[in-house]
Design a protein that fits this description.
Helix content: 55-70%
Number of strands: 0
Radius of gyration: 37 Å
Distance between the termini: 99 Å
Structural class: mainly alpha
Length: 99
């Protein structure tokens, strides 16, 4: 009577030990993956900080003004260029039935 209970107990103990080993191994792998993900997140956040700093540097008003002066041919609007809405020519009607 005692012998079958001992065998069942040893089998249950062996199964539980194997399950615990598998669980420990799986948790170790998940912790390694978590560490890698955290490292990747830190690297992405650092690159975002660098990109924001570059964006701020490139969008300085004095830099944009010098680029506009150098590359755009802008002129001051004269009063003769201002017209009323009635003086603007109407758009020609498109084909296909839409007015």
């Amino acid at each position: 009577m005692l012998r079958p209970l001992v065998i069942i107990g040893v089998v249950i103990l062996a199964v539980m030990s194997f399950g615990l080993f598998q669980l420990k191994y799986e948790v170790t792998q998940l912790e390694e993956q978590l560490g890698k993900v955290r490292t990747d997140i830190a690297a992405e956040e650092e690159s975002l900080r660098v990109l924001r700093a570059e964006w701020s540097f490139l969008n300085r008003p004095d830099r944009l003004r010098s680029l506009a002066d150098r590359h755009l041919t802008l002129a001051v609007i004269t009063p003769q260029q201002i017209r009323s809405i009635e003086q603007i020519p109407k758009r020609p009607a498109e084909r296909g039935g839409t007015p």
